[in-house]
Amino acid sequence: MQVYIPDKPYEIFSLTYCFETIYNMKQRTFVLLFFILTLSSYAQTLKLETVIQKGHSASVKAVAVSPDGKILATGSRDKSVKLWDQQSGMEIRSLIGHDHTVNGLAFSPDGKLLATSSADGTARVWDILTGKEIFTSPKNSKYITDVAFNPDGKSFAYAGYPDSASIYAIPSGKLIKRLEVNADQGSGYGISLKYSNDGKWLAIGEDNKTANVYRTSDWHLAYTFKPAEGWCGGCGTYVEFSRDNKSLFKIAHNDKLSQYDLQTGSLIKTFGEPVDYLRGITLTKDGQHVIAASDSMLYNYTITSKTVVAYKLYLSETVNDIALSLDEKEILVASDNMTAWALEAASGKVIRTYQGALQEQDKGGLNYNADNYWEYNIARYLRLKNELLLTKDDNNFITGKTGVNAIQWNISTGAPNKLYEGHTKAVISMDQSADGSILATADGAGEVFLWNTKTGALINRIKPHTEPIFDVSLSRDGKYVATGSWDASIEVYDVQTGEVSSDMYLKENSCYSISFTPNGLYLLCGRLDKSLELREPDSKKVVLSFIGHTDVVSSIAFGADPNKALTASWDGTARIWDVTTGMMLQKFKGARGMLHSAIYSTDSKKIITGGDDRIIRIWDIQSGQVLKTLNGHQSEITSLSLSKDGKMLVSYSTDGVVKFWNLESGLEFYEHVHISSREWMARTPQGYFSATEQARADIHFVKGMDVYAPDQFFEYYRPDLIQQIFLNRGSSPTGMQNVENSLQLSPPPLIKLACIPNADGLQATLNIKVMDEGGGLSEIRLAHNGKNMAVALDPKKVVEGKGNSYIYSVPVSLVRGTNQFSGIAVSKGKIESAASLVSVVSDKAPSAAVCHVFAIGIDTYKNPAYTLNYAREDAEAFAESVKRNGANLYQKVIVHGLYDAAATRQNVLDTLKSLEAHIALNDVFIFYYAGHGSMVDQNFYFIPTECTSMYQATANNALSAETIQAGFKNIKALKQIIIMDACQSGGSVEVLAMRGANEEKAFAQLSRGAGIHVMASAGSEQNAKEILELKHGLFTYVLLEALNGKADGAPKDGKITIYELKSYLDDQVPELNSKYSGKIQFPYTFSRGSDFPIVLE
């Protein structure tokens, strides 16, 4: 993938010009402030950002392509703009700042700036390299629909409701001209804008099928093009200039495309029939075709012949906007289903989508559509209910709204360690008793579950409502639970008996936030009518009304003083109230946009707030002033929590990002991102990370406009170090390099592959060009269909120095079908290049395959303390299962077995050596190991039968994963699997946890190093389990069930493939572990190489 990298940051303006601006424009201090902040930002080094491939969370309303065609920009009803790599669909950056729907987008002619227009009444200009705003217009419009850059790049125009278009100079921010317009407000088209290519004309599409054309030299209205008679309110107009700037195309709702002469002002011709529900218009580079889109159709007008070709867009939702790719082979479409599409221009066929995890996320039954008129409000209210609960021991946090379970995550490892199961819809709100012994989880079905947190047992299940529960509160003593719901009622229940204590019917304007007072006698409720009330549950009466907030109260908190309540509101303020009098004691104002969370510091001398502007503010209560701001979130902050000692702050945003802050230093020291209930990443600012395999595909890093996959920093994949850094709240061991420093000092090389097949179709020549980008070259790795090739290329062939390159040539053998070769070059700082890929198809290679199963099972060890019960039985059962179920798939299945006393180190090595000579490229190789495994000095060891001490592995004939990996690499088979059910005994919980982190890295390295699929039980941290009832190790029991047909996913075809097997293990192993041990424990699964069937019924 190639990603646009600007030559240098956008030059804002010279210091001389800056001082002139200050002198001549004292009244425009708001503009000056933006410019000074932007100018200073370039003195800072660009940061390496974590980007989640999330996509938009609401309708995509606008699309635009950068002048070089490399970047696609999308604007959405979710208030954000996203930048994408146009060819790959990879999300690069979000531009956050607008307070309402983004309606229009326009790149500057040099592609370095992006102008946006919004329903919040502002237009903004952004530096796409940094994501920083460099200009925001005054809010003098109600609703802005379009924006356009002058081709000279020195000014831009924006327009919308109610009645004006404005032209501003860039970079000075000076207002050049304001023009009166007649906006279409009825149907929402508003105004459309277009400059001619020479910048001499500005056309404004207005209501009533009207276009006005102005000369930009003097802003004289030159022409008005409108119907000769009649009036069409709600008929917004789109405009486009011809390439020679001599004519204007105009089309409106319920109108034909028309072309006007700009020398005479006369109508040249009209095209086709009227088009309804128009959504966009664009012109091809040759000027011969106008492309227009309605909500469900595309129209291609040929200018010279006046012909029109129309075809239906078979998309799931309404079209909102269109743009052409640079080569004009693709039409980029914005639509209502949170997605942008790339369609083949010739046919309308979908080529790719621009979306992410939000489109695939399990919403737990909360399928309200924000684009549906009837569901807009509930969808909006629920979206901003996004809670995180920090457990009282500060070791875990709990989240909802991912599937139907509440999930508890261990902070130091990043992994989930408990599921609170039983809900039928997503968990929206949570609370815990003062001592942390009781947890309340409330969901979208109107139910509340009450849990014993020590045992995980369900105390009670209550259904107080028929609609989603917005908020839940436990009394401090844990005796009562109160809920506020969309059904406009408040309910109070006895936790232990489940009986109703009080019910209050509000008729309308539901309770959105609710909290017991510290004495448990009253309820404080923030309602959707913007009111805040103190209610007494027994009498069901309102005791006090608190006057002050002008929008919905989103959170309620109490501190050390039980008589003082802290509230946050969508009006952008936080306030402290005396709950005995109803009087406001302090107001905190200064956040931009809505606030969603406010909490007290542990000493109650400060408060902390977070909301729409993604800034955490720490305020002094006495003065009401901001003491400190914390920046880093890229989406709305909806939840804040403090550790018991008050030194660690946990913040949570709507994109699933959890950040941990050291309040003593004011620095972020840890970040956790969860994409689903099983896919997550934990990362430190130094760049060290731990993540599930799928998360590494959904999350990437961006610096400027340069995109890096997590695997390019595999040296920084350190689950063990992640734990240490969290526990030390940010400090890493001495001598550990920062990933940004490594990237700067040792950038990855460039690599490019080309493959030339021989005439026989059995062989090919692979050419590999490697170029030093300034970081030197330490290693080149090649893979064939994902399997690492046993080819050693001397990195010294590339003379050190930026720009130096060398072309290697390697003969390769081909298999029938697609042969994909990949190459990665590694800098001396261990930063990997993006993979270069090339594919060759062969139909002449032999197709018959033999499956070789190398099975090792060891019950009996020389040290009797290591005796196991089912390891040999597991290995023999696995080999027999593959032999039986693979009979219809392979030419034959050959089992190579070493059991108990035969499973010595030398016998294992000899068997691997023998297999090198007998296994062909097209064969399948499966290695199964059941026995003990050990982590020593961050290396994993297989423990043969003669070993007497697992923790002195190197001195006791153990087999390192590195040794085994080398053996696999020399085996030619492109399809390889390693399956391990390895036990490890002994050690404290803390020691086992650290071994588990190291083991995870070791297994990932084994998969990468050999280019194979690895599936393993959790052998150290989670102690692989032999269970009498199952008569197998738990992991192998699930494995055998899978191979016997249970892993056959939809569509059921009798085949069990690698990824079906992985999916089944990931589903069933945690479930059985939970059943037999009370903990959810996941297997390790890592994949390199393509999917393929293992067995066939």
UniProtKB/TrEMBL annotation:
Entry's Gene Ontology BP terms: proteolysis
Looking at the keywords, is Repeat present?
yes
GO terms of molecular function: cysteine-type endopeptidase activity
Q: Where are the WD repeats?
A: 53-94, 95-136, 420-461, 462-503, 546-587, 588-629, 630-671
Report the superkingdom from the record.
Answer: Bacteria
Q: Do you know which InterPro entries this protein is assigned to?
A: Caspase-like_dom_sf, Pept_C14_caspase, Quinoprotein_ADH-like_sf, WD40/YVTN_repeat-like_dom_sf, WD40_PAC1, WD40_repeat_CS, WD40_repeat_dom_sf, WD40_rpt
| Keywords, in A-Z order | Repeat, WD repeat
Could you tell me which residue ranges the Peptidase C14 caspase domain spans? 855-1069
Tell me one Pfam family matched here.
Peptidase_C14
PANTHER family, per this entry? TRANSCRIPTION INITIATION FACTOR TFIID, TRANSCRIPTION INITIATION FACTOR TFIID SUBUNIT 5
Q: What is this protein called?
A: WD-40 repeat-containing protein
This chain's source organism reads: Cytophaga hutchinsonii (strain ATCC 33406 / DSM 1761 / CIP 103989 / NBRC 15051 / NCIMB 9469 / D465)
